[in-house]
Design brief:
The structure holds two protein chains of two kinds.
Chain A (H helix, E strand, L loop, with lengths): L2 H13 L20 E2 L3 H8 L11 E9 L3 H12 L5 E4 L11 E3 L4 E3 L4 E3 L6 H10 L2 E3 L5 E3 L10 E5 L2 E4 L9 H19 L20 H4 L6 H7 L5 H15 L8 H9 L12 E3 L5 H11 L3 E2 L2 E8 L7 E7 L5 E11 L3 H7 L5 H8 L3 E11 L13 E4 L7 E3 L11 E9 L4 H10 L2 H15 L3 H4 E14 L9 H6 L6 E3 L10 H18 L9
Parallel strand pairs in A: 1-20, 2-3, 2-15, 3-12, 9-17, 15-21
Antiparallel strand pairs in A: 4-5, 6-11, 7-8, 9-10, 13-14, 14-15, 16-19, 16-20, 17-18, 18-19
Chain B lengths: L5 H30 L2 H22 L7 H29 L3 H27 L5 H30 L1 H23 L9 H20 L1 H8 L7 E7 L4 E7 L2 E6 L2 E5 L3 H15 L5 E6 L4 H6 L7 E5 L3 H4 L1 H4 L1 H7 L8 E4 L3 H7 L4 E7 L6 H4 L4 H9 L1 E10 L7 H13 L3 E9 L3 E9 L11 H4 L7 H7 L20 H11 L3
Parallel strand pairs in B: 5-6, 5-8, 6-7, 8-9
Antiparallel strand pairs in B: 1-2, 2-3, 3-4, 9-11, 10-11
Helix pairs in contact in B: 1-2, 1-3, 1-4, 1-5, 1-6, 2-4, 3-4, 3-6, 3-7, 3-8, 6-7, 17-20
The chains are: A alpha/beta, B alpha/beta.
Chain lengths: 545, 507
Amino acid sequence: MTGFDRRELLLTALAGSSSMLLPGCSQTNAGFTGELLSPSLDVGHRIRDGDLPEPAVTNWQESGVVIVGGGISGLAAAWRLHHAGVDNFTLLELETVIGGTSRCGQSRVSGYPWGAHYVPVPRADNRALWRLLDEMGVAAQNAQGVYSAHEHILCREPHERLFVQGHWAEGLYPHSVATDEDLRQWTSFQERIAHWIDWRDARGTPAFTIPLAGCSADEAVIGLDEVSMGDWMRREGWDSVPLFWWVDYCCRDDYGLTIEQTSAWAGLFYFASRRENSNSVSPGVLTWPEGNGRIVRHLSRVLGSRVNTGQAVLSIQQSDDQTGRVRIVVLDRETKQVRGIRAQQVIFAAPQFLARYLILNRPAGRVADSDQFQYGAWVGANVHLSDRPQEPDFPLSWDNVIHDSPSLGYVVATHQQGIDHGPTVWTWYLPLCDDQPSDARRKLLDLTWEHWAEIVITDLERAHPDARDLVTRVDVMRWGHAMIQARPGFIWSRSRQRAATAEGAIHFAGTDLSGIALMEEAFYHGIRAAEEVLTVRDALFSSFL
Amino acid sequence: MNRAPLFLFYLNVLIIATCGLIYELLAGTLASYLLGDSVTQFSLVIGIYLSALGVGAWLSSFVEEKLARCFIEIELAVALVGGTSAPLLFLAFGYIDWFRPLLYGLVFLIGVLVGLELPLLMRLLKEHVDFSDLVSRVLTFDYIGALLAALLFPILLVPHLGLVRTSLIFGIINALVGLWGTHLLRPLLSPKGLGGLRGRAMLVVGLLVTGIIKADAITTVAEENQLAGTVVHAESSPYQRIVIAENNTGIQLFLNGQLQFNSADEYRYHEALVHPAVASCRNARRILVLGGGDGLAVREILRYATVESVTLVDLDPAMTSLADRFPPLAELTGNALRDSRVTVINQDAFLWIDKDTARFDAVIIDFPDPGSYSVGKLYTSYFFSRLRQRLAPQGVVTIQCSSPLVSPKSYWCVINTLEKSGFRVRPFQATVPTFGVWGFALAAVEDLPSIPQLSPQVSQQLKFLDQRVLDDLFIMPRDLSHVETEINRLNNQVLVRYYDREWSRWQ
């Protein structure tokens, strides 16, 4: 099989929804190594399949608050409790590392992300997030109390570039293939986005803002959630191929869904939620070499020993006695010891699909609500290079996108450090946009490291013919449930909104409660759930929100 | 055969010989330009070419029939390979690792083909001319052709056409001779396939003509325009292409095709860059130079007896060691980088500035112009705020910031960004004929730096500055007055965009 055939086969197989077929695709003699990684599938699947019979627990401990899950939302909840002076809490994380999809890695050259790698500059009213950034030492208030981020974490120019028709060009819209009519449609689309940025309902609430809890529930806006982005755009009279490509790219990038699978409300949210008015310039994004792993590191430093990793929560049960305690059974994955914790409150900061297996005796309605949550599968690969490929066009940027590819391209870990020469690490992303998420997860597990490494390298070779010789290592992370999917009808469904409400002494956090996988949403739900707990505990506090 | 007068055949010989030698000269010039060390390159190219001629002549004995057709086919092959050789080599140089094998392979191939031509032609003519006459005439025209090429090449072709066009034009001449041959040798050619032969000749001509139309693009890519002077040193480092050219004004250093200095007037630039800063320090002991890997700024710094240490941070080790491989540069710098007071650090200043903790009395910033993002980051408010951490109390900074006349927005963007980063800034300018009016700035954190006073001990060593001239540098003429700009930040890099826009107007 020639390289060309193999590449086409691999990529078309990934792009399509048909099952994977890779006959005789043997690994070429690669000059690089690497690992195939994934979150702890084994423990998760054994809990799902009931393979972990719950042993009799003899060892019971008491705790004030137990936080289940050490992603951004769980860490944010813990951080909020910490700042309210509540110290008798413990955070339990299944994995051996915290951070969820914001986790990061480190090589001799650079730190690098495994998933989430940036945060758009928050709007002024996102006080909680600015407080965190201030505490991290990367933002400061001026005399008027207005926050701004420090220069070195604002994404450095050149920001993004697109490889189209054999050349790299600045920006992500494929200008070089656009006709006058395409540009007219591009302008008219931008005008419509401006309209939605400036739109306010009768009470002055914006149509789109982050966190999305602040978005208007006016029928004129939320009606957009009933159709797909593609249908809505066609209905509005747009049919430009470059415009559709660009919007599709944005949907895949932020939601792991194609333009036809994404809710139009979510599609517009992406474009219209970051700016306060259409006259303001785009505020840019905050980023670090290791991506949002920097935020995780900070929170971990603040929280110290109250964060416990390698702790598999086996069950969570509201007690039927007078104490009102919640009983949690935990397996320590290293010592294999099982212990019980009786907690006054639980913050369930794990995705909803786990609630079904972990929370016992749930009301049927709540289970049905959780079942409405669908998650997309992603692959992220960290490609270590001994040097940069030679290229004559627009220079290597932070975000580098290849037009004719199912992948999202790659971000450069060394970019924000100002390292412009020599070895680097590229983080390559691929959302698996199958109509059935379970099909995508099957693909994810069917392929070996050799397959994935070949997919990654052949994709990079589209734009960098000399990349293969420069690659020293390819580590591939398979995220089975990488992000909640904003398919039509989900974000404004009753199920999503009910899932965020407390269930007895169990409070819910988690990005998926927003229907959109953003760091800010995870952070918001963590703070919100923690403040619910503070209210229940009669603690004195003023809201961060 | 009787149809064509014999002198036409001799003309043919002459053209073939001229073309052959032109290809050889092209390869030799290209090799010494691209690889440096012209003695070795020319001697290798000549050696390979001559031996290949021999191989070609030997091979001609294996051609037994269809001599005329074979002759024309070879003519077309020479036209194609020789004609495309210069553009091909120029383009290949930037993209492949096996450039030398390609270069010598091409020289050998052209040699073999040219070597085949004359023996075949002589065999074609031997029926019609007395053998001793034939040998003497053919060789005479062969050598006249060589002389013609040797004269044309340096006087007319390289200065007026450049290597790429010369190569393509001689390819076309060669192909036209082939086409003409189909008429001259018509009686010896079978009518079968004659059309095809002529078609192929036309195709080769068409291909090379397309090349000429595209020559400008090829030349830009290949930076051939540097060849206005003689290239006396050339090398490629992982960071940049370093070329030193020489003409009757002096030696010039080019980095990635950008002129860095001309030895004839560089003292004006470096005196203006260094002395205002060092002279305004009360006690200039520890000096930092950022960029300036040629060592010329350090030469000026070492004129001060108070200086105890000079730290030079330059990305490219090939640049800071260039004087070791190119002695005239060592002479020009007075071996400055070999001075015991000098420490050279090869690192990106952007990364170094955060890692070092030393503080300096004066900082001399001599980065390249902000023509790319990787250089533009060194002129940002972020970098300047880090720079403050490296400055001793009352420390002074001087910086080159492009031409305030050609690129006012770029110049004032640097000044405005320095001010935004907490510096008090005094702009100044000097005229450097090679560059025109050039802009600098003197900056300090506490107070606006005063106009420096040159000590007589230093002043007497200088060629450009005395106190009167130095005072005048700080007078900004009306056409260089202040311009509002955005602040150059890491997340906007407006300076790179200003610079690109302003300089492209002048090109």
